[in-house]
From TrEMBL:
PANTHER family linked: GLUTAMATE-1-SEMIALDEHYDE 2,1-AMINOMUTASE (PTHR43713), GLUTAMATE-1-SEMIALDEHYDE 2,1-AMINOMUTASE 1, CHLOROPLASTIC-RELATED (PTHR43713:SF3)
Principal EC category: isomerase
Keywords: Cytoplasm, Isomerase, Porphyrin biosynthesis, Pyridoxal phosphate
EC number: 5.4.3.8
Positions where N6-(pyridoxal phosphate)lysine occurs in the chain: K258
Organism (species): Methanothermobacter thermautotrophicus
The protein's required cofactors: pyridoxal 5'-phosphate
Gene Ontology cellular component terms for the protein in this record: cytoplasm
Protein name: Glutamate-1-semialdehyde 2,1-aminomutase
UniProt subcellular location: Cytoplasm
Length: 419
């Protein structure tokens, strides 16, 4: 097996054999040889229906011909300039047209950089230091937010190397719990912002309960606290305007990533003009990057948003419902405890009999059983993220037949499992 051989080689030069923790799974990950549409091919010649989709960016599937063509054209004219381009304005305008709270945009290279800048900006704008985040939410790998995080870090939270003083001002509360926020806001002052993933996509997939996001909007407004939606996953995925359009709640700031770069590295911070104008050089809140707004990512992102305009969302929603209904249907006939979660083109299974509303509930899921389900699917040509604490995605390139094949594979795997 070439993957096994490559993994042995990789382990000598890359910590854990991978470049990002969640990519590692036992006995070893498969190595990619190429991909097209919804199919991912390994160096061993295996082909997988891909629901990991690089953890979210590939809403059009792999190597969409029009994105590839646009990027090729751009690369021939240069890959980065160190001076502004018209493309940056076009992409910023496209974001502002779609995302309700966006009046100005700062491009970054990753979601991590976007949330780091958002927290700094919120602190500067309000003159306060404390931030509230949710247990099990993941906002990237920087110091301010690695407190009770989700994603790969859910299994090893609170990384060493982060000074206690850096996270003293990062307070955490359970998701979908109004009382916890009310109590915290009454008990402490000096809160600059609430940073929230409107759908928790890094602890599986947990939707906000009816009215919860509006509650966050109301309480932040009443207390002059900024509300930041981290839409690195949900941005351009749930709707053109992301979760703020889907759930009709408008935050003060939004962080974007993944889809906004059309499969290339990119992040963005956007929001109300009055706040955004404090970013340097317009204001004095420092944020910078050699590759910020680089023309390759900008081109891919812009092309992706244009293709998405051609009416993809109802079909993504239909395929999401079809897959979730198929999974529920087959699980209802089995002797397994389960929850099938997710809105639109996001989904996940938890192996627990109890409803999953927050991090603590998600942690009760049988993760051993989940890994058996993951391995069983992989053997049958279906690739989902190798962790209970990630979310699965559907792309525009998945056809109904792919979904049907996936449901059949899941039935085959799950009928052999017990919890
Ligand atoms: N915020 C959320 C909600 C994410 O899911 C992620 C990554 O998965 C990030 C921020 C960090 O983005 P990046 O990996 O591009 O740094």
């Amino acid at each position: 097996m070439k993957s096994e051989e490559l993994f042995r080689r990789a382990s000598k030069v890359l910590p854990g054999g991978v470049s990002s923790p969640v990519r590692r799974f036992d006995p070893h990950p498969f190595f990619a040889a190429g991909a097209s549409g919804c199919m991912l091919e390994s160096v061993d010649g295996e082909r997988y229906i891909d629901y990991c989709l690089a953890y979210g960016p590939l809403i059009l599937g792999h190597a969409h011909p029009r994105v590839v063509e646009a990027v090729n054209d751009q690369i021939k004219r240069g890959t980065t300039y160190g001076v502004p381009t018209e493309g940056e304005i076009e992409l910023a305008e496209a974001i502002i047209e779609r995302v309700p709270c966006a009046e100005m945009v700062r491009f970054t290279n990753s979601g991590t950089e976007a949330t780091m800048a958002a927290v700094r900006l919120a602190r500067a704008f309000t003159g306060r230091d404390r931030i509230i985040k949710f247990e099990g939410s993941y906002h990237g790998a920087h110091d301010y937010v690695l407190v009770r995080p989700g994603s790969g870090a859910a299994t090893a939270p609170d990384s060493p190397g982060i000074p206690v003083d850096t996270v003293r001002n990062t307070l955490t509360v359970p998701f979908n719990n109004e009382e916890a926020i009310v109590e915290l806001i009454e008990a402490v002052d000096d809160i600059a912002c609430i940073l929230v993933e409107p759908v928790m996509g890094n602890i599986g997939c947990i939707e906000p309960e009816n009215g919860y996001l509006q509650f966050l909007r109301d309480i932040t407004r009443e207390n002059d606290i900024l509300l930041i939606f981290d839409e690195v996953i949900t941005g351009f995925r749930l709707a053109p305007g992301g979760a703020q359009e889907y759930y009709r709640v408008e935050p003060d700031l939004v962080t974007l990533g993944k889809i906004v770069g059309g499969g290339f590295p990119m992040g963005a911070l956007a929001g109300r003009r009055e706040i955004m104008e404090n970013i340097s050089p317009a204001g004095n809140v420092y944020q910078a990057g050699t590759f910020n707004g680089n023309p390759v990512s900008v081109t891919a992102g812009l092309q992706t948003l244009r293709i998405l305009d051609e009416g993809m969302y109802s079909d993504l929603e239909r395929k999401g419902s079809m897959l979730r209904a198929g999974l529920r249907d087959l699980l209802s006939d089995m002797d397994l405890e389960y929850q099938v979660a997710g809105p639109a083109s996001m989904f996940q299974i938890y192996f627990t009999g109890e409803e999953v509303r927050d991090y603590q509930d998600a942690k009760k899921s049988d993760t051993g059983l989940f890994m058996e389900y993951f391995c069983g699917l992989l053997e049958r040509g279906v690739f989902i993220p190798p962790s209970q604490f990630e979310c699965c995605f559907i792309s525009a390139a998945h056809e109904s037949e792919h979904i049907e094949t996936t449901i059949e594979a899941a039935e085959d795997v799950l009928s052999g499992l017990k919890n």
